[in-house]
Automatic annotation (TrEMBL):
Species of provenance: Hucho hucho (huchen)
Keywords: Metal-binding
One GO CC term on file: cytoplasm
UniProt-listed Gene3D superfamilies: NIF3 (NGG1p interacting factor 3)-like
Name of this chain's protein: NIF3-like protein 1
Family from the record: Belongs to the GTP cyclohydrolase I type 2/NIF3 family.
Length: 136
C-alpha cells in the first residue's frame, strides 16, 4: 500500500481524513465495526498524528506530551453505544481525556484488515509461498 499524498504542515484533520481513507477505505469495513473519525473536531488544525494499536489512556497521555491532536488507532475505542461517560473505566477515562484536550481519535480496524494490500497481505508477504488469504 503506497500513498503519494503528503500532509502539509498546516493541515486540518478534515484534510487528513481522505488520506487515511485512501489507506483504509471505510467501504472495506465490516458492518459491525466502528471505523473512521470516532471523536474530535475535523475542522481543528492538526498539530501532530500519533499512531497506535489501541487508544488507551496512556496513549492519550503520550499524544498530549507529544502535542499530537490526532490519534490514529487500529481498534476503535467505541464498538457500540455508550450510556455514561463518568471515568469509571479505561474507555471512559481515555474519552474524557481526549475530549478535554481536543484530541481526535480515528480507527481503521477492519477497513485495513480487508484492504487487498492490508494486514492479511502483509502476513502472506512475510510468511511466503505457503500462505493463502481467506475470502472472508
Amino acid at each position: 500500500m503506497n500513498t503519494s499524498k503528503t500532509i502539509k504542515k498546516m493541515s486540518t484533520i478534515k484534510e487528513i481524513l481522505p488520506i487515511l481513507e485512501e489507506m483504509a477505505p471505510l467501504a472495506y469495513a465490516e458492518d459491525f465495526d466502528n471505523v473512521g473519525l470516532i471523536i474530535g473536531n475535523e475542522n481543528s488544525e492538526a498539530t501532530g498524528i500519533l499512531v497506535c494499536h489501541d487508544a488507551l489512556e496512556n496513549v492519550i497521555d503520550e499524544a498530549i506530551a507529544k502535542n499530537c491532536n490526532l490519534v490514529v488507532c487500529f481498534h476503535p475505542i467505541l464498538f457500540s453505544g455508550i450510556k455514561k461517560i463518568t471515568g469509571k473505566n479505561y474507555v471512559e477515562r481515555a474519552l474524557l481525556k481526549a475530549i478535554k484536550n481536543d484530541i481526535a481519535i480515528y480507527a481503521v480496524h477492519t477497513a485495513l484488515d480487508n484492504h487487498p494490500e492490508g494486514v492479511n497481505k502483509i502476513f502472506c508477504d512475510t510468511l511466503g509461498r505457503l500462505c493463502q488469504t481467506s475470502g472472508s
